[in-house]
User: What shape does this take?
Amino acid sequence: MIKNVFSTFKELLRTKMAGDVMWTFAGQVLVLLASFALNKVLSGRLDVDSFGEYNLIKRSVTVISFIMLAGAGIAMPRYLAIYLGKGDNARAKAFVRAAIWFVATVTVVVGIAATIFKPKLYAIVTGRDDILLYIVAFVYAAMLTASTMIYVYFRGKNDFKRFNISNALLQLLLPASALIIHGINTLNIFVWWTIITAVVTLTFVIGEYLKGGLQCSERITKQALKEEYKIVAKYALPRLWGDFFLFAFQAFPLVYINHNYNNESVAYYSVGITIITLGTAFYSFLGYILLPYVSECLSKGNISDAVRKVNYFTVIYVLSAMLVMAAFFFLTNFMIQLLFTSEYIAAESLTQIMILAILPQALYLLYRNPIDAVSVFPFNTVVLGVSFAALVGVFYMSSTFEELAWGYVAVSWLQGLGAFVAWHLLKKRCSKPAEVLLHTSEDSRTNEE
Assistant: This one.
């Protein structure tokens, strides 16, 4: 099996996928370094309470942003890759416009809900009753949503060079701004980041427009937009809950601890979450490539090649994740001092427990994109929903920090194994192309034509 893995990678080195992997690897290294720098800068410039508040708002904003995105971040690279793989530029362009309108609609709905329910959402989003901070958090979430749309557009086009440049540029500007902000506090951090995100996103949108992205001679009719809007909604909306569960999986522990303990406890727990994010960072980048790659294989009837590559990557993920967990366990003290300050050494034992979640989370990160590529039914949403419900239950039954950490690990294994089972069920169906759920009913009709 190991010999077959190495032979597969030799084949990959001669394909376009190899270049995409290298660009994405380099981009994610820069993003990771930016994340290190950001934690180091902010943990040094903010006191422990303010750093805990910052982490709470950051996690909350991430959840809000993905609710605004409403699953379009998955739909865009899937369908754009399928349409472009079939050479249908007109439909690809119509789909992009429909996806933008869909996300704009959801964002407006979220804004209305945030206004109506603001008294109840204050404590959840910001941890305190501050209307200005609350507004800034939602505006920043909207800007993150816009930036994500340009990223996933580049993914769908298999333009991983610009995907990684745009992503890395924005992430590098965040710690740079945190260094120069005068009189730094939670509010002005997110104000500056809102401005920076808006400028970077607008720059790449203008650049794509001037470049003539997805140009086609055919006029896009209202009927075509309407049909693509239906396709986006049918595929994306069930995944809205998946996005919510995925990021709530990270945000809920901090909200729960903030409510039942204090900001200092949130800061310590954030150390474990940050180091897990570090440990799984290199496992998520391959997924950026796999979703459009597997989708393109579907459009060309070559799913067996995609299944074979995912199987080989599984071996690599398991072996490397075990090594990462071992290294992180023995270097926990060093990593905490490197990424934070000596004040956070108290989180060492908690972090060493949470490190055991790296392997199952790596498996989930591998399988989630191929699952979404081959199935319209939202299997990932089911897996994440069950995992999140289990996490809430485990936290409510826990009475110590150690129990909270072990509960997080147990639920991470539930999440990883759930994705593993879902992929292997779908893989069997993929062996018979006629049985694979490639498209919605509208897509099937188009293919028959």
Q: What stands out?
A: The longest helix spans residues 222-260.
